[in-house]
Amino acid sequence: MREETHKSGRELSAPVNTNLPSLASEGAESSLPPSLARRAAEGSRYVLVGVFVNIVLTIAKFAGGILGHSSALIADATESLLDIFSSTMTWAAIKLSAAPPDAKHPFGHGKIESLAAFLGALMLMLAGVLLAWEAVNGLLSPGKHPVPAWYTFFIVLSVVGIKEALFHVFAKKAREIESSALLTDAWHHRSDAIASIGTTTGVGIAIVTGWVVFDKIAALLCCVLIFYNGFKMLRNSLGEVLDEQMPDDFLHNVRQSIEEVPGVICVEKCRIRKSGLCRIADIHIHVNPEISVAEGHVIAHAAKDHVKQLGKNITDVTIHVEPANAEEDE
C-alpha cells in the first residue's frame, strides 16, 4: 500500500487488525448505564430532602409572617411554597429522565430533566414578579400595615443559615452528577436564602425604627434578586433544551483523546450536546482512504468505545468515517 500524508502533516495509518475489540452489540445502547441510574437515584434523594425542609420552613415563615405582621416574611414564605412545587417537579423529572431509550425515544428521555430545569427557572422568575407586585402595593399604602413582631427577625435569621447550607450541599451534588434540574433546585434554596437576608435586614430596621416601609423595601429587593437568579438558570436550561454545543475546552479534550485511537488520523467534526444527566456525541473522523470498509468499521467502534470510557457521561456516540483525502462535506 502506498503511503500518503494528510494535509495536517500526519501520516495516514496502515490497515488495522479487524480482530480489535468492538462494541458487543448495538442493543447495548438501549440498556440503562449503571452510572446513570446511580446518579439519578442520588439526585432524587437530595430533592426529597429539600422538599421536606421546605415544607417545615414554609409553615414556620407563614405562621411568623401572619402572626408577626411581616409582609416580607409572608413574601419569603410564598416563594418557599413555590419551591415545594418546583422541587416535586424536579424529583419526578430526574426519575423519568433516567428511563432507558425505547422505540419512540432512541436517544433516551434526558430532555425531561432539561425541561424541568427550564420550567423551574420560569417559576423562579414568576415568583419574583408576583412578590414584587405585593411589595409595591405595600409601599403605596404603608400606613395600613403594623410594625413586624420582634420574633420574626429570628425566624428569618434561622432560615438564612438553613437555606444557604442546602444550596451548597445541593449545588455540589448537582455538579457531581451533572444535573441541571438539581442545580436549579439548589438555586431555589439560595434564592430563599437571599430573600431571607433581605427580609432579616428589612424586618430588623422596621422593628427598631418603627418604619414599616423598610419591610416592604426589603421584600422588593429580594424579588429583584430572585428574578435575576431565575433568569440565569433559564438561560442555561434553555441551552440544553435547544441542544447547545458543549464548551470549547470540553470538545478539545474529546478531540485530542479520539485522535489517540489507532487508525484515526484526525477528528473533522465533534458535536456534543447535553441531554439530562447524559451527553450525546456526533463525531466525524478521518481514516486512511485505502483501508477496507471492515477496517473502517473496527476503527469507528474503537473510537466509539474510547469516547464512552472517557468518564464524561457520554452515553450515546455516533461515529462517521470519512477518507482522509475527501473534500469537505457540503
Please describe what this structure looks like.
This protein is mostly helical. The chain folds into 2 domains: 1-29 and 245-330, Cation efflux protein, cytoplasmic domain (Alpha-Beta Plaits, 2-Layer Sandwich), CATH 3.30.70.1350; 32-241, Up-down Bundle (Alpha-lytic protease prodomain-like), CATH 1.20.1510.10. 62% of the residues lie in helices and 9% in strands. The chain has 8 helices and 3 strands. The protein has helices at residues 34-67, 71-97, 111-140, 151-177, 180-209, 213-241, 248-258, 293-308; strands spanning 266-275, 278-287, 314-323. The protein has a 3-stranded mixed beta sheet with strand order 1-2-3. A hairpin with a 2-residue loop joins strand 1 (266-275) and strand 2 (278-287). Helix 2 (71-97) runs antiparallel to helix 5 (180-209) and helix 4 packs antiparallel against helix 5.
